[in-house]
Write a sequence for this structure.
């Protein structure tokens, strides 16, 4: 797992040292440098799966990034006028999903490898060929396999129902895959085209995390896109569960529902407090590392209670209460 990165004059970030936990959340103002930090994380591993995405964003850029991994191995990578110096120590294997994920469609393409695609466009195919794989290490209720089956299919169904109230099945043809969703009260399954965008946004996230191995990393931009606040909160439960089991999850988000629910997961013991960090960024200011204590309250590195930076949660409880005064 990625443990720390030191970014030296890379795009908008200069002399930036970031602690990366099993569950790391980048948040803050738009165009402040969060995506640059995400790219820096990506360069620590199998970035050639995402070459076009990265190179389009580092044209004519110079910089250096130094990495420390959980096994205490160090490595670094240089960028010289947009050219990436090969990293000899690829110490993380990761899956990346960008914010612009695949839209609902009648059919989805197949691929020749295990890459889900940067938009999650191959998630239906990967699911179709791996749905019967046993993923007991990442399964809910994995201490009692009789309660919930530990196949990818059953675990995906569980989380789809928990987050969105629907289940999913795949139909593989020769060179395409069709998905169908079905809510408990529905008589027949229906095409993604007959449901909201949120369903198609969640599905590749689940597949990315549930097909990962312990020690792998999943990096996701704006997992909350197109989701109802309740679903955003339940997605936070999923991330806390997966990260606690040993898959590193790195998120970039603007969603207060997700952030607060992650704190609640700490409070409830779903994930250990020392496995979570929020890296908050404002324009022209350094990142602020924000942690939680065992009760899920925001604290600094010395465990002193603190508030989240002013301006992120624009409407506070105090503001809401004014309505009823």
């Amino acid at each position: 797992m990625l443990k720390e990165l030191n970014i030296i004059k890379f795009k908008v970030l200069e002399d930036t040292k970031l602690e990366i936990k099993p569950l790391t959340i980048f948040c803050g103002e738009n165009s402040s440098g969060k995506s640059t930090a995400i790219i820096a994380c990506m360069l620590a591993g199998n970035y050639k799966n995402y070459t076009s995405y990265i190179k389009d964003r580092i044209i004519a850029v110079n910089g250096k990034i130094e990495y420390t991994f959980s096994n205490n191995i160090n490595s670094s990578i240089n960028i010289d006028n947009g050219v990436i110096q090969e990293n000899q120590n690829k110490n993380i294997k990761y899956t990346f999903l960008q914010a612009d994920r695949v839209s609902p469609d009648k059919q989805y393409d197949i691929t020749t490898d295990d890459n889900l695609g940067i938009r999650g466009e191959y998630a239906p195919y990967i699911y179709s060929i791996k749905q019967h794989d046993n993923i007991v290490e990442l399964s809910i209720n994995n201490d009692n396999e009789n309660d919930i089956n530990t196949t990818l299919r059953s675990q995906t169904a569980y989380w789809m129902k928990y987050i969105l109230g629907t289940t999913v099945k795949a139909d593989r043809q020769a060179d395409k895959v069709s998905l169908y969703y079905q809510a408990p009260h529905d008589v027949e399954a229906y095409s993604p085209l007959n449901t909201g965008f949120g369903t198609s946004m969640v599905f590749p996230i689940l597949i990315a995390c549930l097909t990962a191995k312990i020690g792998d990393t999943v990096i996701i931009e704006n997992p909350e896109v197109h989701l109802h606040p309740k679903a955003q909160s339940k997605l936070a439960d999923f991330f806390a569960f997966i990260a606690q089991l040993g898959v590193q999850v790195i998120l970039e988000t603007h969603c207060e529902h997700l952030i607060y629910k992650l704190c609640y997961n700490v409070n409830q013991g779903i994930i250990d407090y020392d496995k979570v960090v929020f890296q908050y960024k404002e324009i022209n200011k350094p990142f602020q590392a924000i942690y939680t204590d065992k009760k899920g309250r925001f604290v600094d590195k010395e465990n002193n209670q603190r508030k989240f930076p002013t301006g992120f949660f624009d409407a506070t409880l105090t503001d809401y209460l004014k309505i009823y005064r």
Remarks:
- Helices lie at 34-42, 51-55, 123-130, 152-164, 197-210, 229-245, 256-267, 317-322.
